[in-house]
Amino acid sequence: MEKGNVASTSSGSGVLSDEYYLSRLSAVSKARKPSPIWDLFSVEAQPGMLSMLAGKPNPSTFPFTHITLGVKATPTANGHCSDLTATTDLVLKDDDLAMALQYNMTAGIPDLVKWVTDLMETVHCTSDEASAEQKWRVSLGPGSQDLLYKAFCALLNPGDTIIVEGPTYPTIIPLLDAMGCHYAIVDSDDEGMSASDLEKILSTWDSTANGKPFPKVLYTVPFGSNPAGITTSYTRRLEILQLARKHDLIIIEDDPYYFLYYGDAPKPPSYFALDRQHQYQHQQPENRQGTGSACPPSSPGELGGRVVRLDSFSKIISAGFRLGWVTGPSIIVTAIERHNASTVVQPSSLSQMVLLKLLQTWGLKGFLDHADKTASFYRERRDVLKSLLERYLRLDPHHENGGGVGLAEWKVPDASMFFWVKLNLGLPTSEFDAGTSPIGVEGGKEGEGDSTPFIRDTAVPRGVLVLPGKAAFPDGRETHHVRLSFSLLSNDEMEEAVKRLAGAIVEQQHARKLPQVEGEHKTQSGCVEYQEQEKQVDDEVIVELAFPAEWDELWRTEGRTWF
């Protein structure tokens, strides 16, 4: 296997050298030249410069005189507002409006780039001194999804291998497939990507045998991973980072749910922060965003700069702004910017100016308080869906057969907007044991129990739609898992959705033994009718679904072993 000579790539300051990063860029990225016009915009901005450089439209021709936006009252430190109806007007006019309606720097409007850089220094414990020494910087883009794609393009050639967790963010799969990349899939457990499995894969890699080059990049979603909802533990992050150093990998840390962490445990540091620290004595943070953490310096023997980090405003401010940012080694960030300059040119000036005015009004503390408030909102939504899953799909320790598994199993997320739920679609109980296999790995015969046909043929006719788990595995493996989002539906709508899902699961289980039911027991949509029956179990009330008598008889006489 081929790895970079890490020991020879130090810049002398405990970080990887510019030559190292240049060697890791893709062929296309190396060939992409800077725009002769856009590279001069920084010169144009110098005081007193009379520019005849670019074909910028004259602001006097724009049809707008001002833009006014009403903003909710600034949240207090505890996440509450004294007057929920209060609003503040943000007004763009004069020079601000001219900037909002004009071309700007590819990296973003400088004042907003500075604001985000200050945020990174505060939240991820990266001081100005460290910033200068470690050569990282921030660049804005039209959403973190676009920046993620361009980070892949900057580092991967067709035929290269990338490490991903299983399950992984479904949207990256068609991107990487189109780029002609190979995958090394590392299964996840309750603490995130398995470090032991990763070490085994890397230490035994044989390119001759598997036909794939040694991996260059590791991709991970460490907070509330989409779709599994797992937040990678502090210890596991250290293990993964150490393996990245050992095997010469660049980590792409895709973290759209960083500010939506609502777990009870202290918030673990990001890979980006850990990459610049030798030891991390985590203190109780001032808020969930972790700004009270201690940040010792890196050890001289460890080379930092292995992390390219993606963040997003979509989940905490507005998805429609299409604004995200990348933070990482300057050479890699520059490669992404050059790609932007030749495609989208820049992120939206109007979105940037609206966001900048909002952030300047709030200040850093106001932004972090808003992030905490938003995280608390999603924690409440999570708790609602959790209670509904327990009510309609729960494990039943009082099952008359000695402990049946119910209709589904799940882990409770501590970040993001999703539950990763394993459905019992009627396989034998021994093949529905989540404790014997990593997340998303199932036994059973090929094609039996995969959630995709179940969603299409049984759940959708009942009026409930969830994401099939198969979409989250690059190898297309079959899985009983589905992803449930709790971000948008009202409490009543969520309850109805879970009831419909429960009915679909039970119908699927029965259909394995009695696939055809006709006549009065069919609804207009073709689904089998059922009734809800409440059952007292100790101090709780759970809901059982009563189906037609002929199904119920079959259930009692034949079905107990596969429920």
Give a description of the structure:
Residues 277-302 are annotated as: Disordered. There is one protein chain. With 563 residues, the protein is α/β, with parallel strands linked by helices. It has 2 domains: 6-56 and 103-347, Aspartate Aminotransferase, domain 2, CATH 3.40.640; 381-562, Aspartate Aminotransferase, domain 1. Helices cover 34% and strands 15% of the residues. It is built from 17 helices and 16 strands. The chain has an 8-stranded mixed β-sheet, with helices on both faces. β11 (408-410) and β12 (418-423) form a beta hairpin. It is globular, with a radius of gyration of 26 Å.
Structural domain tally: 2
Spans of at least 5 consecutive residues with low confidence:
4-8, 128-132, 278-288, 291-301, 397-404, 428-437, 443-447, 514-526, 550-563
Number of strands: 16
Percent strand: 15-25%
The residue fraction in helices comes out at: 25-40%
- Major beta sheet, strand line-up: 3-10-9-8-7-4-5-6
Main beta sheet: 8 strands, mixed
Net shape: globular
Task: Give the helix tally.
Answer: 17
End-to-end separation: 47 Å
**Arithmetic mean pLDDT:** 82
**Multimerization state:** single chain
Structural class: alpha/beta
**CATH structural fold name of the largest domain:** Aspartate Aminotransferase, domain 2
Radius of gyration: 26 Å
Provide the CATH superfamily of the largest domain. Type I PLP-dependent aspartate aminotransferase-like (Major domain)
CATH architecture of the largest domain: 3-Layer(aba) Sandwich
What is the CATH C level class of the largest domain, in words?
Alpha Beta
